[in-house]
Fold this sequence. Notes:
Blueprint (H helix, E strand, L loop, with lengths): L2 H14 L22 E6 L6 H5 L10 H4 L7 H9 L4 E10 L4 H7 L6 E3 L8 E5 H6 L2
Parallel strand pairs: 1-2
Antiparallel strand pairs: 2-4, 3-4
Amino acid sequence: MTPSDALAVAQRNVSDYGLADRVNLVRSDLFANLPEKNYDLIICNPPYVTALAMESLPPEYRHEPALALAGGEDGLDAVRTIIKEAPRFMQSGATLVMEIGANRAAAEAAFPRLPFVWLETPSSSDSVFLVKREDLIAGR
């Protein structure tokens, strides 16, 4: 699936669920094409698979484009960019929620000053975090 295909699927979902008045889809490489405006909430599921794990992905995952999965040596390449750039797109008090798979230890080591709040999901308790804008700024 190409980025254009993914955007077309997202557009169908927006239409099917009657969200056209609340959701504006933007094709962008992270924040590169995002309009200069501020958001209350940023939710993302960036590529987070480590280089080692990419080498041994099961066949069902190999149907996904590598761009959607490969997160660099430690799985945090996109995560680092998002944590660095997100505050300028967030209103005061805004929240960033991000899925990072099995990279909790790596994220906590890479960002020791960030007070991550780890959220429970049906499949884990340490793959999705929440962090406030002010904490992103203070944790630099």
